[in-house]
Fold:
Amino acid sequence: MSCGEPHETDCSEVLDHLYEFLDSEMPDVDRDKFQHHFEECSPCLEKYGLEQAVKKLVKRCCGHDDVPADLRAKVMGRIDLIRSGQTVPQHDVAKAPAAPQES
Structure:
């Protein structure tokens, strides 16, 4: 996605780190770069608005559920593995129980 205009921060970088921006999990200097990008790139701003709306909807619908304390750390660790090109160990992946088969 791109508006076709050159930007100081590339659209792909902005979209790759959109949730870090939404969750305020990036340094202020990067947040400022992203904010500037959104001001000049309407396709990225539109994507930002859509993802922000989805995030608010999920929070409203699911925000009251208690989450195990170590879940976030496990999820972030898996994301880091995937981003670095490593494979996620199969023994670590929670498997859903098999659905009962009808006779």
